[in-house]
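Look over both lines before class:
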Amino acid sequence: MGELAQIQDEMLAKLGETGTLEECKDARISLHLARAKAYNLLSRAMSYPWNRKFFRPKSLLEPLDVCLLEEEDWTHLNKIIDGMGNYLPKMAMKQVQAEFVRVFGHAVSQECPPYEMQYGTEGGIQSQTDVLIQLGGFFETFGFEMPKNRGKERVDHISVELEFMSFMCYREAYGIEQGHDERKIGILRSGVKKFVRNHLGRWTPLFCIFTARKAMKGFYKDVIDILAMFIKNEVALLDVKPVKVEEPEYRSLSYSMENDLVANAPAECEPTK
């Protein structure tokens, strides 16, 4: 117990809070609740927009005010959200839905696929399908299930991975608030770090580049700019070093996947002459 009394929270230290775990208890809870809310809001923004409640841009200001490390990011965030306020209230729901389809498509887009499996793994193309197994292992281990009112995306969809992180942040906040053993809280933190290092922080930066390129302007360009900023901030807060997927690697992978699909397609799928 004496040793724990001297330990500082690594993430809070990056934000300038230097007290012990007990002294910073409220700040620790606030930080993880803020992160959980930001992840949840971004998860909703990256889901198919069924109704007006799917995203409220200004709701991000309060949690990200707690989380962001760089003042420049805070200034940029405010500029983006102010801009969204000029056009989003005027958009009909059908317009937002049409924009979602334009950017991400009805099927899996090769331009900016929102599924991690499309980006391969560190193990190369042979282990690509292991992504689904790895994600399922994370979700089962920590007891995560996607809310039933949020659609049925595949487990490697960006919205599902973001929602899992929201769940984990809420669990850490709850554990601290309830005075759980710091070793148990450390297991949660370790799981979060591993997830960001091996999954979310690995493929999301390239996904954001592709999506910004496809969207060009408007709602999904603004949302993806915020997501890219937030994930960069999370990587810094958690002090992890993901092995990011680069564009040439992705293009090579996509080409190999396409050839494999064509080579193994049934005869009735062959083009007519």
Summary: The chain has ten helices and no strands. The domain at 4-263 is CATH 1.10.3480.10 (TorD-like).
